């Protein structure tokens, strides 16, 4: 359930109750139905994930400075 009385940038981090069709994307070697799903999965900001998708960056692998974070995420 979406939290009430909080700003949009906080609500986007919570799984939505009704899913709308988003812009499909590929980030760090995984396919997602929307950029928001990708941001939630990697626990990043939506704006950062959107920038990565728009510029075509990091589609297949993590940046070198996030190498440790990648290993932690893949262990989940």
What do these coordinates show?
There is one protein chain. This protein has 76 residues and is mainly alpha-helical. The chain has one domain. The chain has helices spanning 8-11, 35-41, 46-55, 67-75; strands at residues 25-27, 30-32. Strands 1-2 form a two-stranded antiparallel sheet. The longest helix is centred in the middle third of the chain and has 10 residues, at 46-55. It is globular, with a radius of gyration of 13 Å. The mean pLDDT is 77.
Map the helices and strands:
Blueprint: H1 8-11, E1 25-27, E2 30-32, H2 35-41, H3 46-55, H4 67-75
Antiparallel strand pairs: 1-2
Helix pairs in contact: 2-3
**Domain module count:** 1
Low-confidence stretches: none
Structural class: mainly alpha
Strand order, main sheet: write it out.
1-2
Shape: globular
What string, H for helix and E for strand, traces the elements in order? Answer: HEEHHH
Estimated radius of gyration: 13 Å
Distance between the termini: 23 Å
Major sheet attributes? 2 strands, antiparallel
User: Would you tell me the overall average pLDDT?
Assistant: 77
Helix fraction by DSSP (H/I, runs of at least 4):
25-40%
Number of helices: 4
Q: What is the β-strand count? A: 2
């Amino acid at each position: 359930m979406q939290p009430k009385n909080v700003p949009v940038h906080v609500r986007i981090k919570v799984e939505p109750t009704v899913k709308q069709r988003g812009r499909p994307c590929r980030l760090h070697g995984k396919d997602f139905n929307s950029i928001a799903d990708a941001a939630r999965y990697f626990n990043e900001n939506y704006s950062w994930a959107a920038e990565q998708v728009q510029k075509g960056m990091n589609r297949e692998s993590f940046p070198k400075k996030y190498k440790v974070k990648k290993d932690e995420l893949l262990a989940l």
